Amino acid sequence: MPAAGRPGGFFGWSWIVPGLWFRRWTTVACGHTPDLRAPASLAPLPTTTIFVTSIRRHLLTQSLSTNAQAIGRAMPSRIGEHKQDAPRIRSTRRFSMQVHRTFRRFTLALAAAFVLGLAACGGGGGGGGGGLPLLPPVAGEPPPAPPPSSTSRVINATLKSNANGDTYPIQIYLPAAYDGGTSTYPAMYLTDGDAKFNFGTSRFQNFVDILEQQGKKAIVVGIGGTAHRNTDYLPPGSTAYHDFVTRELVPYVESNYRANPAKRMLSGLSNGGIFVASAFFMEGAGQFTFQYFFSSEAPFNGPLAAPMDQLEKQMYANAATRDVPVTLLLAYALNNSGGPTITAMHDTIASRNYKGLKLSLKGYAGGHTQMDIPSLGDIAARFID
To answer: 167 and which of 8, 160, 209, 320 could share a cystine (Cβ 3.0–4.6 Å)?
Structure first.
């Protein structure tokens, strides 16, 4: 047997063999390609086999070391009694010390090989990356901001009018992905926003549902105060109400939300339809605030015939030679009797030949209030992107 501690003997190889084995183990465990130039006797073994073998050798070495130390401690008591055994006792002690040193070397070699092997697993370069990181990754760029919310929302507000002194509840619908964006949106201003004409839900909510069903994007402003409709929507009260809408409500909306000032829309049903037609005539005589006017089931006959006729003539007197670059839709219910009267108003306006005016007349299924649903659906489909 070679001298203890010299390369070539068992105790010398105690430094080398664990390093090679653990180099092989970390190579296989980390997913690197084995070194085919290594001796066949050191070919990589399955990770489980190497680990079990290492544990077995560790336990065996501990056992040898413990037994040898116990023998060494027991021997001194016998030296005095058996002088003839002194050479054998000294040989046993040397063997015990060699086993103990070998165990320490083996343990240190295992630890060093394990650390070096894991270091070789790191993330740089090709082929690696199979092992778990020893340290948390270094902080780099902050994570990107979350995408804008895909959920629409409704803002409830109140606005007191300086024009007529009344306070109006206002509902403002913002479409999905409005938050965090920069785009502007068409703005639909609905009279009777809190009125429940159909399905037990408000006119505001009906139009919001239509937009979402069609996948259309717009800001919807529901103007409450339906209790004042017979005053606000009809002459002469409609003048002050119009001032409230155009000089107070529209600036309020556009100063707080990204409503496109080039796509302002005004919609009304029944007496609300009368107000929309009145707004068209009043603005036509001066300056347009809205670009789209949607008047549905407006009662142009009876006591309203004279004041509406006067507003129409006043507009013609002021706009006969001017551009009228707006859209006016006069709608009526197919299952109601107001169609002829509305058609007559359409024909009167058409006879003026306003330059730039986009005028249309259309009937919708349903009765006086029921026609509002298909009418709003058609408006969303034709005029909102």
So the answer is: 160
- How far apart, in whole angstroms, are the C-alpha atoms of residue 204 and residue 377? 13
Reported as a single tens digit per residue, the pLDDT across 195-224 is: 999 999 999 999 999 999 999 999 999 999
- Which bin fits 378, alpha (ψ -120 to 50), beta or left (φ > 0)? alpha
Does residue 43 surpass a pLDDT of 60?
Answer: no
For 25-59, letters b (16+ CB in 10 Å) and e give bbbbbbebeeeeeeeeeeebeeeeebeeebeebee
Q: What is the pLDDT of residues 263-282, one digit of tens each?
A: 999 999 999 999 999 999 99
| C-alpha span between 302 and 266 (Å, rounded) | 24
pLDDT at 92: 54
What is the 3 state secondary structure string of 86-110? HHHHHHHHHHHHHHHHHHHHHHHHH
Contact 75, 93 (CB under 8 A): yes
74 burial level (CB within 10 Å; 0-12, 13-18, 19+): exposed
Among residues 122, 105, 119, 118, the alpha carbon closest in space to that of 18 is found at: 105
Using CB atoms within 10 A of its CB, is residue 359 exposed (0-12), middle (13-18) or buried (19+)?
middle
- Beta pairing, strands 219-223 & 167-174: antiparallel
Helix axes 10-29, 86-120, angle to 10 degrees: 20
Q: In whole angstroms, how far apart are CA 263 and each of 149, 184, 258, 288? A: 24, 10, 11, 12
| DSSP designation for 192 | T
